[in-house]
Design brief:
With 401 residues, this protein is an alpha+beta fold. It folds into three domains: 108 residues, Butyryl-Coa Dehydrogenase, subunit A, domain 1 (Orthogonal Bundle), CATH 1.10.540; 121 residues, Butyryl-CoA Dehydrogenase, subunit A, domain 2 (Beta Barrel); 148 residues, Up-down Bundle (Butyryl-CoA Dehydrogenase, subunit A, domain 3). Strand 6 and strand 7 form a beta hairpin. The longest helix is centred in the middle third of the chain and has 37 residues. The relative contact order is 0.12. The structure holds flavin-adenine dinucleotide. The site of flavin-adenine dinucleotide has 22 residues, from strand 1, strand 3, helix 9 and helix 10.
Length: 401
């Protein structure tokens, strides 16, 4: 049988990269993922292996030491990795978004300084928009930067930084009224700062504290933190792109590719859930036959596989659109929305197929069941995706009365 979620039209290089990553996932991630997740342990050995494979530099141009691959290649690798363990794809995701933002919007000096280190995985990226009082409504950000000579002084509290502790470079979005008079639209008075710091917790740079890991229901292993800025001084040459007031657009650009990425994670987790469900259904017997022989279970498997295929096709479509240089916000929003919803549904069906054993920590599906909900929230909730999709549809289908 052909596996689900095949991608046609890949180059030999793409196929080779994917085969290598899949092999790594099968041998190095799947066998240890559940145990590490239950211990909430950072997968250092896996991260070192991915560094060696060049995954941290996958989309960074070759001139900066990366592999210069497309968003599609990247997303397909993320799908494979998430199939093994979603948290590992989270470790790469924020790094990838920051590298992408630097590539697209950084000054030449910023690219020359950061990208080679990021490609090698020496510098590791996190990005920070959310605050305790806001996530969806980015325009309501209250953290602030005030100019003081050749520096900016940053104050405020950030929330939900994936890789907040382990990263050494955080792209932080704050309000910067300098040069932007009172009453300027919120999205025009925001700036992204490139904040370097030591890894770890506590005061990781004067004026910058990472208090500790947030205790989460799933998505464990990867650290998610708060970030507190109290008189944090950042030189003016660490404003992303060199000009203030462009942060909102830069972050939205980053989040747009991030959405393809989250869609890819949904595809990977759903694929693994299907694999677990279809395997268990052939081993468990009730009423004298494997449960896979009951039509109700076969229908579940059919629905699950159809969802896996549909989500994969939409994710690939969104990635290819971006790679072709076209605007892809509609496709990325649709792919993220559908893949995350389907992922949750496929995981739930696989859980039901496992009966009572799905509730036992001995079975992998228990972990997936706690991981899938994160995809409904990260990089914009379902409601936010539908807002983006709806607005774009009204632009495309404007009533010509
Ligand atoms: C594990 C994890 C990791 C994360 N990592 C990061 C990270 O690395 N960097 C970062 O910046 N953020 C990160 N986030 C934050 C994430 O992006 C936000 O949680 C998300 O955007 C939702 O924001 P919120 O939690 O403030 O919910 P809210 O914005 O308060 O929304 C609450 C509910 O209201 C709905 N809602 C909001 N506005 C509307 C509207 N206009 N119409 C209809 N419904 C609406 C939402 O869909 C949601 O259901 C992470 C979150 C989690 C849980």
């Amino acid at each position: 049988m052909a596996r689900l979620a095949q991608t046609h039209g890949l180059t030999d290089v793409q196929q080779e990269i994917l085969a290598t990553v899949r092999d790594f996932v099968d041998k190095e991630i799947i066998p240890v993922a559940t145990e590490l997740e239950h211990r909430d342990e950072y997968p250092q050995q896996i991260v070192d292996g991915l560094k060696e494979l060049g995954v941290f530099g996958l989309m960074i141009p070759e001139e900066y030491g990366g592999l210069g691959e497309s968003l599609l290649t990247y997303a397909l690798c993320v799908e494979e990795i998430a199939r093994g363990w979603m948290s590992v794809s989270g470790i790469i995701n924020t790094h990838f978004i920051v590298a992408y933002m630097l590539k697209q919007h950084g000054t030449q000096e910023q690219k020359d300084y950061f990208l080679p280190r990021m490609a090698a995985g020496e510098t590791r990226g996190a990005f920070s928009m959310s605050e305790p009082a806001l996530g969806s409504d980015v325009s309501a950000i209250t953290s602030k930067a005030v100019k003081d000579g050749d520096e900016y002084v940053l104050n405020g509290q950030k929330m939900w930084l994936t890789n907040g502790g382990t990263s050494t470079l955080v792209a932080v979005l704050v309000r910067s009224d300098e040069g932007h008079p009172e009453g300027t639209a919120p999205h025009k008075s925001m700036t992204t700062f490139l904040v370097e710091k030591e890894p770890g917790f506590g005061e990781v740079r004067p004026g910058l504290t990472i208090p500790g890991k947030i205790d989460k229901m799933g998505y464990k292993g990867v650290d998610t933190t708060e970030l507190i800025m109290d008189g944090l001084r950042i030189p003016a040459n660490r404003v992303l792109g060199g000009t203030t007031g462009r942060g909102f657009y830069q972050m939205m650009d980053g989040v747009e590719v991030g959405r393809v990425n989250v869609a890819a994670r949904g595809c990977g987790v759903a694929q693994r859930a299907f694999e677990l469900g279809v395997s268990y259904a052939q081993q468990r017997h009730t009423f004298g036959k494997p449960i896979a022989q009951h039509q109700a279970i076969q229908f579940k498997l059919a629905e699950m596989a159809t969802k896996v295929e549909a989500a994969h096709a939409m994710m690939v479509n969104a990635a290819r659109k971006k790679d072709s240089g076209e605007r892809n916000d509609l496709e990325a929003g649709m792919a993220k929305y559908l893949a995350s919803e389907y992922c949750k549904e496929v995981v739930e069906d696989a859980f039901r197929i496992h009966g009572g054993y799905g509730f036992s920590k001995e079975y992998e599906i228990e972990r997936l069941y706690r991981e899938a909900p994160m995809l409904l929230i990260g990089e914009g909730t379902a409601e936010i995706q539908k807002m983006i999709i709806g607005r774009r549809l009204l632009e495309e289908y404007r009533f010509q009365g």
